[in-house]
Design goal:
single chain, 126 residues, mainly alpha, 2 strands
Length: 126
């Protein structure tokens, strides 16, 4: 597995530690074990696995410097998102509606209200 993917997966798993995830054949366990299960699985299939361990190390370093050290140990934040990314990719939540549900601002006040488009033509009348 690519170390970059495993690093991102490790961070997600640490942020969602108690989430139950499924692996092959319906095996279920907590998300915090998923990177280690994948490394073990890849070691069995491919052998080696040093690059996978490097991905976990980078993910752990990022998680520790970004979340654990500043929040739990009261240290300063070593990592921050560059401001140019906030200009192009705004940091906002709640901008997406559920599947098949129009955004709240586009809903009509009265669903029984009809449009004044005219009578229309009946198809297959003759």
């Amino acid at each position: 597995m690519d170390p970059m993917i495993l690093a991102v997966l490790y961070v997600w798993c640490q942020l969602n530690r108690d989430q139950i995830v499924s692996f092959w054949f319906g095996t279920q366990f907590k998300a915090m074990y998923l990177p280690w299960v994948l490394v073990g699985f890849n070691m069995i299939l491919r052998g080696g696995g040093w690059t996978d361990l490097l991905g976990i190390f980078v993910g752990h370093l990022y998680f520790f410097l970004m979340f654990k050290y500043p929040q739990d140990f009261g240290g300063r934040s070593f990592l921050s998102t560059p401001e140019i990314l906030y200009r192009y990719l705004p940091n906002r939540r709640g901008g997406v509606s559920g599947f098949g549900v129009p955004p709240a601002s586009r809903r009509r006040a009265d669903d029984n209200q009809r449009q004044g488009w005219g009578q229309g033509n009946v198809l297959g009348g003759n």
